[in-house]
Recover the amino acids of this structure.
């Protein structure tokens, strides 16, 4: 008989921290770990306490009875529940089908036992998730352990800037060399009505936190980047609040905006106000606990209190890193999906032709080979024409 020892995750109303849960585990234990896609049973062979990652040897997906030939590394954020498995009898357990059935029955009878960093899976909550909506079918994705490792590398590279020293100028030079950055203001909710505490910038490899309270103002080097309409462009969420804040607090004209709120509304056909944190949770299947503070630490969440705690800075770093990741996902996986499909189809118009002579004939400048694969979306010509007419009228008015 297989017994399950679920980790006790709550003590009264206080939630156990992720690090405390991971620290309870011991190498050699047999674990049953539930993710969004799998139900893995295996022997715990490695614990990364810093990045909250576990490695299972001889891992088997109980749902499909598939056994992995290599160790499986899991990030804490992927896990919905962890159970310690113990064999209470000496009975022969070689019947894998019987064992699998018993495991499934036990797991799904204990649905209330969940890790604090994951969403509940009740029917009501599934009905309100993005993936359950018809227009958004297949919209949400599951990040891999490698994705979380790369994000952790970004967090580890965080540069906190309080004065215009060498760190400041190196950060500005790096940001100016990018084509796209993630941008965050803290706090942002009230737009012009609250002063700036932090400006956070994410590049593909680094995160910079500019402490505006300590710096005193947005200096010209950073100002010129924010006002540039071409390089770098800025991914942000609720661009109207950013523009309002920068205009009324710092007198600068923010430009080069890619608004992930607008992008999310366009690709999902769902015009519902969602914060950056809520959108990230839905798109990447991440629990809100991922962005929350450890309940066992006494952290001041006032953005204007100095010094800022490392935990507070880390939360801002996570948000701005995911801001850039959200831009990349929405643009390339959804907004440009049809474009990439057409590029792929067009790219294959020569390679499968075994007739060398025919291929040579198709290389002349007037060839239309593959043009049938290039199909513009919708009424783009009308849209382009109306935009051109609008711009032309503005130019004529300016001349007059």
């Amino acid at each position: 008989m297989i017994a399950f020892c679920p980790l006790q995750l709550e003590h009264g109303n206080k939630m156990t921290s992720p690090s405390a849960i991971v620290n309870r585990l011991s190498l050699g234990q047999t674990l049953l770990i539930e993710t969004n896609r799998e139900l893995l049973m295996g022997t715990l062979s490695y614990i990364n306490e810093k990045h909250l990652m576990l490695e299972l040897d001889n891992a088997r997906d109980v749902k499909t009875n598939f056994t992995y030939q290599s160790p499986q590394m899991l990030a804490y954020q992927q896990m919905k529940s962890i159970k310690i498995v113990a064999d209470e009898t000496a009975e022969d357990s070689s019947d894998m089908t019987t064992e699998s059935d018993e495991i499934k029955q036990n797991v799904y009878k204990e649905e209330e036992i969940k890790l604090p960093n994951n969403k509940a899976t009740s029917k009501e909550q599934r009905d309100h998730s993005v993936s359950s909506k018809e227009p958004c079918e297949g919209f949400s994705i599951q990040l891999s352990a490698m994705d979380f490792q790369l994000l952790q590398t970004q967090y580890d590279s965080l540069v906190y800037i309080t004065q215009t020293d060498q760190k400041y100028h190196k950060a500005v030079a790096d940001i100016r060399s990018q084509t796209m950055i993630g941008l965050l203001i803290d706090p942002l909710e009230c737009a012009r009505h609250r002063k700036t505490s932090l400006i956070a910038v994410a590049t593909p490899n680094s995160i910079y936190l500019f402490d505006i309270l300590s710096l005193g103002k947005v200096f010209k080097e950073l100002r010129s980047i924010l006002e540039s309409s071409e390089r770098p462009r800025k991914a942000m969420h609720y661009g109207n609040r950013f523009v309002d804040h920068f205009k009324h607090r710092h007198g600068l004209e923010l430009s080069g905006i890619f608004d992930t709120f607008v992008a999310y509304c366009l690709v999902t056909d769902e015009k519902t106000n969602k914060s950056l944190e809520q959108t990230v949770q839905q798109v990447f299947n991440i629990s809100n606990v991922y962005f929350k503070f450890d309940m066992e630490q006494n952290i001041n969440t006032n953005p204007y209190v100095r010094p800022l705690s490392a935990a507070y800075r880390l939360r801002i770093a996570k948000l701005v890193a995911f801001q850039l990741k959200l831009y990349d996902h929405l643009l390339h996986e959804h907004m440009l999906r049809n474009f990439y499909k057409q590029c792929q189809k067009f790219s294959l118009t020569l390679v499968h032709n075994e007739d060398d002579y025919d291929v040579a004939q198709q290389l002349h400048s007037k060839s239309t080979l593959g043009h049938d694969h290039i199909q513009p979306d919708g009424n783009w010509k009308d849209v382009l024409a109306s935009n051109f007419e609008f711009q032309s009228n503005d130019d004529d008015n300016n001349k007059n």
User: Anything to note?
Assistant: The radius of gyration is 26 Å. The first helix runs from residue 18 to 23. DSSP finds 14 helices and 15 strands in the chain.
